[in-house]
Amino acid sequence: MFSPEGPGLRELAVQALSSVERGYDLLAPKFDHTPFRTPDAVLDAVAAALTRMGPFGNGLDLCCGTGAGTVVPARVCRDSVTGVDFSAGMLAVARRRALPAGPRVHWVRADARALPFAPVFDLVVSFGAFGHFLPRELPGLFAQVRSVLRPGGRFAFPLVAPPRPGSPAYWALLGFDAVMRVRNAVWRPPFVMYYRTFRPSDVRRELTRAGFRVELHALPEFGRRRDGSPRVRLVVARRPAR
């Protein structure tokens, strides 16, 4: 869970009672020491899968946070990598991060729902950010991603299989989402973070509606569940060449 270098209970409480942007500004210096950061094992597996599909030219890390996931496009893109996030605090940490030598790196503060880019990217990745978007926002979000991709470009992100109903993980996520809904019903500004709203079937449907061709690739590093389904998949949504 939280390491000794991570935030304390009071810090987490202050963050939870803030807006999403302000909350992450406060959490940024210690974010990499929390369980909210995407594990290196996931980043390495995604990088390995994309290496087999690449190389790519220009890459974008959507909702890059502290830049932990930006290492992935930095490994597989030859020309440039851009990290975009709306938290100034998270970007300040990202700018101090050491990334693999090679492509040029740029950091941009912007909202993922209104990206300030032309269609110049060959690859867009994102890690752990989709819980901050309500289901009704997905069509607009995916349309924004498509708008910044070159024809033939790919939008890739890992997707963990949902926990089985009745399992401890199922009840933990259900409880977390319930607490957040109560919090947002009685406190302003809202803090949007839900774990059970980004459903695989909805994601694939909305990506297809946004004009993507969607593929699912099992990440073998994480094995399979008892029913044979992958524990973690890589979603690869391609903007058609025409």
Automatic annotation (TrEMBL):
The keyword Plastid does not apply. Pfam families: Methyltransf_25. Keywords: Methyltransferase, Transferase. GO terms for biological process: methylation. GO terms for molecular function: methyltransferase activity. Residues 60-153 form the Methyltransferase domain. PANTHER family: METHYLTRANSFERASE, N6-ADENOSINE-METHYLTRANSFERASE TMT1A. This is SAM-dependent methyltransferase.
